[in-house]
Amino acid sequence: MGEIASSSQLRMSFLRWALLTVPLILLLGLGSWLLSGGGGYGDPWFRALVKPPLTPESSTFAVVWAILYVLVGFALAIIIDARRAEGRGLALGLFAVQFVLGLIWAPLFFAGHKVSAALIVALLLLVLATVTLIRFAMIRRRAGLLMLPYLAWLFVIFLLNYEVNRLNPDAEALVPQAPSTQIDL
Fold first, then answer.
1. Strand, helix or coil at 177?
2. Closest residue by Cα to residue 80 from 147, 8, 18
3. CATH, residue 13
4. Helix, strand or coil for residue 124?
5. CA 22 to CA 15: how far, in whole Å?
6. What is d(CA 167, CA 147) in angstroms, rounded to the nearest whole number?
7. At 29, is the pLDDT very low, low, confident or very high (cuts 50, 70, 90)?
8. Is 146 within the bounds of a domain?
9. pLDDT digits over 62-79, tens only?
């Protein structure tokens, strides 16, 4: 039996999904950040690392991730709402796997200090996010376009992780010196 829905009904269906996916993606991203110990410049281990010259400020990461998670949440809502679209199940599965890898990356890098392992995760994430973007675009072009900034940022994250790994071969064993209260005379 065929279904006939008005354009306003279709928009409302998408909006209902977006009201679920956008906050969920933001909440999961926040959870990953909290598991990572808040990562970044507040962490003595991270401050002690030699970083590439183009490493953004800590506040940049929070703003960029928030914006990207909103875009990703909308892209996900578009695909979920694309009922009976060919390849939809595969696209959603790919999205879930790459998103979980993304959630794992920050705690692995910042809290675990596993720079090499995080680099492998970042590479896998980059590959899977690329495939996900392609699959999303095959279903709904707009969803693929919404994923482009996310993919670009993942590439930046991969390059930063690569450079930190290259510049700090001892990063995983690095223990920043604790502040001393001893007065030298």
1. coil
2. 18
3. 1.20.1260.100
4. helix
5. 10
6. 30
7. very high
8. yes
9. 899 999 999 999 999 999
